[in-house]
Amino acid sequence: MEEVRQILSMYITIKMKTIYLKSYLEQIDELYKNSSEILNKAVQIPRDKSWNDNNLSSIVEINERQCNIYEETSKDLNLICKELENLLIQVNDEIKMIENDLAEVILQNEARYNELEKCKKLHIESWIREKDPWLTDIKLKIAIKNMYSLKENNSMRITTKISIYSDKLQFAQDTYYQILQNYIKTQKGLFNNMLDFLNIKISPYEINEKYYDTSSANTKEIIESKIINSMKKEEINLEIKAHIENKNIKPKEETGKKKVIRIEELNPWSQDL
Fold first, then answer.
1. What are the backbone angles phi and psi of residue 203, rounded to the nearest 5°?
2. Shortest CA distance to 63 belongs to which of 34, 46, 38?
3. Domain 2-199 listed as CATH 3.40.710.10
4. Which residues form a coiled coil (predicted)?
5. 268 — phi, psi (to 5°)?
6. Can you tell me the distance from the alpha carbon of 114 to that of 214, in angstroms, rounded to the nearest whole number?
7. DSSP 16-54
8. Rounded CA gap, 191 and 25, in Å?
9. Where in the chain is the domain with CATH 1.20.1270.60?
10. What are the backbone angles phi and psi of residue 17, rounded to the nearest 5°?
């Protein structure tokens, strides 16, 4: 009986742990749901795409991915809570079964004990009243025999069930441990996905809120394009200057008249225009 009570105590401990863990994960799940909802509202805030600000785009992308991660984690936690609920049902059933078996044994023992006390009282009264105690003596011996017989039978029956209780208790403990492992795995996946955000870099260039009509929206490429165009213009100016110097174009000394220089003479590329 003592061993059965120990098993029952361990079952009750698992039950309390399961209730606690389920309540804890439900609160964590609520946190992820609220965070996902708030992030979803944040990414819906309108912004002017003409800014071509890749830094803002990166921030929004991070929040969108974070929102998806929270939603997936919430789904995993819901599954874990369902597993805990199923475990709780199983543990409650086992506790009820053990308590019923113990209650049945206790009731039978009480019935036999009351019968023994009754026979004992009648036997004592027969001696006090100086009556022949042989009949009460027989009943008392039968009551004692029944009492020990019942204890032996119940002990054998409980011993047989102890192995069943132990196996089911071990299964419940393994299930609880596996659920804990699933939760740890879910949290590791969450943090690993968060680590991917470290690869996103913010551009050090200052953002000019002017729209550039270029083939790329990348700030670095816009700046490079402006530098290249500036260098090309400088190169054209140098070539025009060299062309003028090679032809030795000078104005005539006649007064009142000016030399008209055609644009073709100044710009050798004007014929291609």
1. -70, 135
2. 38
3. no
4. 74-108
5. -65, -15
6. 101
7. HHHHHHHHHHHHHHHHHHHHHHHHHHHHTS---GGG--H
8. 17
9. 2-199
10. -65, -40
Q: Are 176 and 18 in contact (CB under 8 A)?
A: yes
Residue ranges of the chain with per-residue pLDDT less than 50: 207-214, 251-255, 257-273
Q: Which amino acid is at 268?
A: P
CA distance linking residue 89 with residue 78, whole number of Å = 17
Residue 207: its pLDDT value, please? 45
Amino acid identity for residue 195 in this structure: L
CA end-to-end span of the chain, whole Å?
A: 108
CB-CB contact of 211 with 50 (8 Å): yes
- With a CB cutoff of 8 Å and minimum separation 6, the contacts of 214 are 221, 222, 225
Closest CA to 28 of 64, 20, 91, 62: 20
Give the 3-state secondary structure of residue 223: helix
Radius of gyration of the chain (CA): 47
- pLDDT score at 85: 96
Tell which residue, 200, 202, 189, 188, has the closest CA to residue 62: 200
Is the whole model's pTM more than 0.85, yes or no? no
CA distance 141 to 119: 9
Each residue's pLDDT tens digit, 85-96: 999 999 999 999
Evaluate whether 118 touches 110 at the Cβ level (below 8 Å): no
Kindly state the DSSP code that residue 50 receives in the 8-state scheme.
G
Query: What pLDDT does 16 receive?
Result: 96
Largest CA distance in the chain: 174
Determine the Cα–Cα distance for residues 23 and 167; give it in Å rounded to an integer.
27
